[in-house]
Amino acid sequence: MRPICRCYRLVTHGAPLVEERTPLREPEPHEVLVRILAAGVCHSDVFLAEGAIDTGTGRKLDMTRTVSAPRTLGHEIAGEVAAVGAHVRGVAIGERVVVFPWIGCGECAFCTGGRENLCSNARNLGVSADGGFSEYVFVPNERYLIPMGALPPEQAATYACSGLTAYAR
To answer: What is the pLDDT of residue 80?
Structure first.
């Protein structure tokens, strides 16, 4: 019997997230399965769940095309490696990590030039791929994992967004 993963998913924009339980699959050859220790709630998670951003001018920017439901939100993720695919090297089960969520397509000029955060066909965790409002998250490659060291997971998770935003180029 496969283990069950509990997550909280956006099913309908503007409605509360829905608890779901699904069987947990094995990681693909290059994937890493991370057990969530902490997931931050970023202001953009709130906007994505609501389906709109209030611009402060009485107008709202539609976000329903940015995130299609159903989706597990959450891009501020800290956890520990629970399982690895057959081709994964360099991370060990039990290692505590922060997950870099800004994952590009891997093929465009931005991605091949080392600037995945600017990719227009991104696979960002918690936005266009399932994220951290869950017990587990699949990370497509170990290169998106950063050792957490002795930081508390609740602090480390926020660095995946707010900590990186200050250094974006």
So the answer is: 97
Other Cβ atoms within 10 Å of 46 Cβ, number: 11
Contact residues for 125 (Cβ-Cβ < 8 A; gap 6+)? 74, 75, 77, 99, 101, 103, 131, 132, 137, 139
| Residue 43 φ/ψ, nearest 5 degrees | -60, -30
Spatial separation of the C-alpha atoms in residues 81 and 26, rounded to whole Å: 13
| HEC per residue, 143-156 | HHEEECCCCCHHHH
Choice among 67-71, 74-78, 161-165 with the minimum mean pLDDT: 161-165
User: pLDDT digit string (tens) for 112-164?
Assistant: 998 887 888 889 999 999 999 999 999 999 999 999 999 999 999 998 887 76
Longest dimension (CA), the chain: 53
Give the residue, 94 or 52, on which the prediction is more confident: 94
The DSSP line for 110-146 is HHHTT-GGG-TT---BTTTB--SSBSEEEES-GGGEE
Q: To 10 degrees, the CA torsion angle through 67, 68, 70, 72?
A: -20
Asked if 146 and 98 touch (Cβ cutoff 8 Å), the reply is yes
Euclidean distance between CA atoms 160 and 88, whole angstroms: 22
Q: Which residue has the higher pLDDT, 136 or 62?
A: 136
